[in-house]
Design a protein that fits this description.
GO molecular function: 4 iron, 4 sulfur cluster binding; cyclic pyranopterin monophosphate synthase activity; GTP 3',8'-cyclase activity; GTP binding; metal ion binding; S-adenosyl-L-methionine binding
Number of strands: 13
Family: Belongs to the radical SAM superfamily. MoaA family.
Strand content: 15-25%
CATH topology: TIM Barrel
Function: Catalyzes the cyclization of GTP to (8S)-3',8-cyclo-7,8-dihydroguanosine 5'-triphosphate.
CATH class: Alpha Beta
Structural class: alpha/beta
Largest sheet: 11 strands, mixed
InterPro entries: Aldolase_TIM, Elp3/MiaA/NifB-like_rSAM, MoaA-like, MoaA_arc, MoaA_NifB_PqqE_Fe-S-bd_CS, MoaA_twitch, MoCo_biosynth_MoaA/MoaC, rSAM
CATH architecture: Alpha-Beta Barrel
Catalytic activity: GTP + AH2 + S-adenosyl-L-methionine = (8S)-3',8-cyclo-7,8-dihydroguanosine 5'-triphosphate + 5'-deoxyadenosine + L-methionine + A + H(+)
Helix content: 25-40%
Length: about 325
């Protein structure tokens, strides 16, 4: 198992299978690459089936325990089921998707070996959903979530990026997971230094405060210092987790993953440069690339922490330049 200079073991890998997407979400940072979406047809720079599997084989040999396939929209890859089926048996396999293709493929993906799925959903109102995603596929996404649950992908995690364009829909999303058995909600803090538009950021503490008032009980995941809020519904209990990496040192201190972009480049962090295009490398060369990238990992993404006389300190100048926090409503049509 590879261990970086800060004692973090490499146990997970995120693999972007494409940067193509049938949605055009206004907040998308495309796995840290920026807005590179283009034609929906397969692109030459995408890793082939065999190239993806070669990277996974090396990762498994290095004791990486889990892989999450992402995009773009990974279900635009017609070979997704084959990749899932042929992934190393030692690796847990999960997927992040916009859900619009799940109605037709959830069952086949489970048969291929898919174990978990995250579905991006930022509103329960079709018009608001269309405004955020630039897509009219709201009904397909809802149908896809149902298909995933029916196929046995329980729980299904709904990913909601929290920024000024979505904050007002948080209460409705919380109600949905509280009333629907098998759903969980991840509220993901917007990272303006990656996605741009710093004026869209809101104070994530306001979200925590609202959830604390609404929740029946609260737990904290020590690993990432994440809060989990449990909200009772008529027939069960929904779980809402806040993913808040900005200024959260514990989050990055416990990061155990690296990323592979759609074109085969390896990244030690979401907000670090791409290195080592691996598509045409041999397995020994891929192994060497992993070792080098893990050895060069930094303790916190971006430039939030800088090295000063051998010690890592918070870069207050960078934080001040990058984060502009605005107010945005978090209100409910109270019961």
């Amino acid at each position: 198992m590879l261990v970086d200079g800060f004692g973090r073991e490499l146990t997970e890998i995120r693999v972007s299978l494409t940067d193509r997407c049938n949605f055009d979400c206004v907040y998308c940072h495309n796995e840290g690459l920026g807005d590179t979406r283009g034609p929906m047809a397969p692109q030459d720079e995408e890793m082939s089936t065999e190239e993806v599997l070669r990277v996974l084989s090396v990762a498994a040999d290095l004791d990486v325990e889990a892989v999450k396939f992402t995009g773009g929209e990974p279900m635009l890859r017609e070979d997704l089921e084959e990749i899932v089926r042929r992934a190393p048996e030692s690796m847990a396999v999960s997927l992040t998707t916009n859900g619009s293709f799940l109605p037709d493929r959830a069952e086949g993906l489970v048969e291929a070996g898919l174990e978990r799925v995250n579905v991006s959903q930022d509103a329960v109102d079709p018009e608001a959903f269309a405004e955020i995603t630039k897509s009219g596929a709201y009904d397909r996404v809802i149908e896809g979530v149902d298909a995933a649950l029916e196929a046995g992908l329980d729980p299904v995690k709904l990913n909601m990026v929290v920024f000024e364009g979505t904050a007002e829909y948080i209460p409705e999303m919380v109600d949905r997971v509280a009333e629907r058995d098998g759903l969980r909600l991840q509220l993901i803090e917007y990272m303006p230094e990656i996605a741009g538009h710093p004026e869209w950021a809101i104070d994530i503490e306001r979200v925590h405060e609202w959830l604390a008032e609404r929740a029946d009980r609260i737990e904290t995941r020590e690993m990432h210092d994440r809060k989990r809020y449990f909200v009772a519904g008529d027939e069960g209990e929904g779980m809402v987790e806040v993913v808040d990496p900005v200024e959260n040192e514990t989050f990055c201190e416990n990061c155990h993953r690296v990323r592979v972009t759609h074109d085969g480049s390896l990244k030690g962090c979401l907000n670090r440069p791409r290195v080592h295009p691996m598509g045409e490398l041999t397995e020994p060369e891929i192994r060497a690339a992993f070792r080098e990238v893990v050895a060069d990992r930094v303790p916190y993404y971006g430039e939030f922490m800088i090295e000063d006389d051998g010690e890592w300190i918070r870069n207050d100048e960078y934080v001040g330049e990058q984060l502009v926090v605005e107010e945005a409503p978090i209100t409910a049509d109270d019961d």
